[in-house]
Prior knowledge:
This protein is of the alpha+beta class. Among the domains are: 2-68, no CATH class; 100-340, Deoxyribonuclease I, Chain A (4-Layer Sandwich), CATH 3.60.10.10. Helix content is 40%, strand content 15%. The chain is built from 23 helices and 16 strands. It has helices at 2-17, 24-30, 35-44, 52-60, 78-81, 103-109, 131-140, 142-145, 163-166, 180-183, 246-263, 338-341, 356-365, 370-375, 384-402, 420-435, 438-468, 473-484, 497-508, 534-542, 557-562, 564-581, 586-589, and strands at residues 119-123, 149-153, 171-176, 191-196, 203-210, 215-221, 233-239, 268-274, 288-289, 303-307, 313-320, 327-333, 345-351, 377-378, 381-382, 404-410. It has a 6-stranded mixed sheet. A 6-stranded mixed sheet has the order 5-6-7-8-10-9, with helices on one face. Helix 13 packs antiparallel against helix 15, helix 17 crosses helix 18 (473-484) and helix 20 (534-542) crosses helix 22.
Amino acid sequence: MAAACMAAAAAASASSSSTSEFSVETVQRTSVYDRQVMLSFSKCGLFDFVNLETRITLQSLGLLRQSDPEVHRGAESPTTTDRPRRHRSRCERKQKRGCRGGLAAKLKANPFRSPLPSILLANTRSLESQLDSLKLDLITKRETRNCCILIFTETWLNSSVPEAAVSLDGLTTIRADRSHALTGKPRGGGLCMYTNNSWCNNATLVSSHCSADIEFMMVRCRPFYLPREFTVVIVVAVYIPPRANTKHALTSLHSAISDMQSKHPEGVFIAAGDFNQANVNTVLPKFHQHVDFATRGENTLDLEVYTNIEKAFRATPRPFLGSSDHLSVMLLPAYQPLVTREKPAVKKVRVWPEGAMSALQDCFECTDWDMFREAATDSQHTDVEEYAASVTGYIQWCMEEVTVEKTIVTRANQKPWMTKEVRTRLRERNAAFKSGDALALRTARANLNRAIKAAKHAHSQKMQGFLHDPSNSRQLGQGVQTVTDHKATPSPCPDDISFLNELNNFFGRFEVLSNTPARRATPHPDEQALRLETTDVRRALRKVNAQKASGPDNIPGRLIKECADQLAHVLTDIFNASLVQAVVPPCFKSATIIPVPKTPT
């Protein structure tokens, strides 16, 4: 190839210095290289030394990979000038697909920002002897190194083993050794937990229990990242000996977890360890078990993990740790936060600024309502439908002029005590953090804490006030539901669609247009025609419930009640005209009907 390139370069230089011109026949007669060799020349850039005429000749023979842009500029097809479509690489996709979108891939990308911590559970049977294998896994295996929590049972540690002997770099060690005085057993048992400092550096041992039937320790973790619906992560490491009294053991465990749940009702509770023959669901029926494979032998399930969240983890088996006889269990967080699982609720509300109602009353006072009647009157006949539609439209327009429409976005994980003051303090805290001013950040944090305390106290007083007022059943139900944290499960829809069709036809009959003209009955000579007085209408308007939802005309009950004096005259005129003509305006007949299904029982 090198010789061919040298020959081609020599031939090109000779052709450029010579005054003779190449012809097609000459090239065909003296060419000794095949097409692939000539294409390799073009790839190397050797044809840059060939003159224009020689290039045209080689192009006609098909020996150049691309045509000269100066010669064949006009012969280009429309598709060659189009910009080629750029394919997005896999790393640029926000939502990964296939094996790159699984739990392991997400945990690998952000190991310490998962909704729940990743957990490695193992029965070591002497942690000291397995410490070298554990250190090797931390160095060579990224999954173990990036694990948030490591829980080991049967550590066989005692007071003679110092803390430095079992400590690991980058991990916080929390241990609960077996007590010979409490259990009557000189060796065995013991629990140890490691928390990754990159995930949480605020792990505290809350309580521990050691007896002949059960050993457990409870650790409270406040990680750097946690979904808003949770306040704390409580991890309970448990070891129940094979010959223990499971009833006494589960009673002690249930008492400790229940007390902690009353203190942290919005916390995540994870009970993991070696339970042997005990079943936690007998005392904690709302907890869910996540390990579904044998951990010792073929049919033995000893290592179990229980949480108060359904589908919180996905358990996968891992090899034995050292010479242990139990498989290790890796728990990958499968929980999806509420903010990603449920779409935010968006609604539009009208805000009444200060003085808006008084401005609306002044507007109605200065309005000449007779012009609406005159506009709807033709040849001594007043069109009641046009009269009522124009008046309601004017009232709605005046309301829109004095009020402000706002869009409220409510997310599923939003706290009920969140107020405007708290949001303002949050923005101030974030601005102080970005500015880098330590003094301003400390002040903003203090103000935020005070605002949160005040908001929580105000929300608590509001819920307690609902319980003290039994006359309002709606507020009473809200207070009971908030205090008891009752979340009613929606009843399933019936499979029989005939019931749904019957319900649809029942409410759809109101939309059927009637072609029968209305007829006014002839009154008896001794009877007086029905006529409403302004005082009666005003009295009825003042009794309107302001809490009721508005109809299709979007006129709230608050406006009708507050402006009863200003609207009583024109509404009385409309009602009397309707009675005289025996016609009800369509805007007074339309309503929004929302059927609320009841339970079958």
